Amino acid sequence: MLGPVLLAAARSDGIRRLVAAAPVTRPVVDRYIAGEGLGDAMSAVRALTGRGLDVTLDHLGEDITDPAEARRNRDAYLALCDALAAEGLAERAEMSVKLSAFGQALPGGHDLALANVTPVVEAAAAAGTTVTLDMEDHTTADSTLAVLAELRRSHPQTGAVLQSYLFRTEDDCRALAGEGSRVRLVKGAYKEPASVAFQDKHEVDRAYVRCLGILMAGRGHPMIGSHDPRMVAIAQELARRTGRKPGDYEFQMLYGIREAEQRRLADEGHRMRVYVPYGTDWYGYFMRRLAERPANLAFFLRSLATRG
Predict the structure, then answer these.
(1) Is the pTM of this model over 0.90?
(2) Which helix (H) or strand (E) holds 138?
(3) Contact (CB, 8 A) for 239 and 249
């Protein structure tokens, strides 16, 4: 019941200030976020790749208010490209970007986001890695997929994210299941209205399986973004049925969640990629993680009440 409340709170400045000031917040944040600076992110990359895991890096900064912030986020990713190339880690670490961090929600945001993300995609390719465009709330989907199509003209390896709770996603999966297409399938972590998205968890799960079947049967590279043991098992069975080898798809899980399962999959020979967020603008990401994990939410709220 508290999950939707937390998703709404993710956009509240007042609650942001309350949560950020609470002494208990930092230890919980540290579980899900690698740190605030580039050095922290690179330390996480070295540690994870040293354990046989691949990485995708997200520089947090989605709630921007002016074009200067969008340029700073662009520059942070350009610095990340340089760091990955300098340390020889580009083959094991890609990047995930939210177009809102590049100005998508600002006036003229579609063109602004495209202008800011294009040099990042180019720099990633030069460094030997690639970029995946994260999907945000449903109002951004058409713009995000249009940016993806434009980027793929020159950089077809650019990845996409689709969310199974949206009614439209099966059609989007069919459109993006072609040769070489990289698609991360997730259930979805934004508060969406019943007019565009499934509200019942079981319906979301069933939609996830349908979408995953489409991607596995296609000619692209499916990326299974789920911590659900059932979805992991179903993905393995679908891979077997469609004749896919471990390198023909990959699992993706969030930094700090189900770490033993991440190691197990990697040890079994699967490509296991860890989604590693870093940066100072952690609030929205943090609140969505709490909303997804009731046990962590209960712990945080009890601690917050005790400290208060």
Answers:
(1) no
(2) none
(3) yes
Give the pLDDT of residue 93: 98
Contact 80, 97 (CB under 8 A): no
- In the chain, what percentage of residues exceed pLDDT 70? 86
Task: Report the C-alpha gap between 104 and 139 in whole angstroms.
Answer: 11
CA 152 from chain centre, in angstroms, equals 19
> Does 304 score more than 60 pLDDT?
no
Parallel, antiparallel or unpaired: strands 159-163 and 131-133: parallel
Reduced to 3 states (helix: H, G, I; strand: E, B; else coil), residue 54 is strand
How far apart, in whole angstroms, are the C-alpha atoms of residue 289 and residue 293? 6
Residues facing 277 on adjacent strands = 58
φ/ψ region of 222 (left if φ > 0, alpha if ψ in -120 to 50, else beta) reads: beta
Q: What are residue 85's phi and psi, to 5 degrees?
A: -65, -40
Active site residues: 134, 184
